[in-house]
Here is the input.
Amino acid sequence: MLRLLGGITFLIALSVGAASAERVEIDYLSCQVCHGVAGTNSSIPAIQGRPMEDLLALLNSFASSASETTIMHRFMVGTADAERESLARYISQLKGPQP
Here is the structure.
């Protein structure tokens, strides 16, 4: 019985982790609409491959009421610290623009 419960607990934890990873990927697709893909010419900066610390600082700034970027503030307001951290980590691990 304990072995069965342990297996069920493991599967639940695994599925929650997978859902979180999928959520971050889906959130990033929203970012990509404006920020494009690496190497795209746009006045909106590419974000792939930027340092996680820089991205997290920006996302936290956008989430605060002090942010002056209306669109980014609307995307980030109401997000949890952990959500912004996961998104920053995900984006930082993507291949950035090539020189």
Notes: The chain has one domain: 2-92.
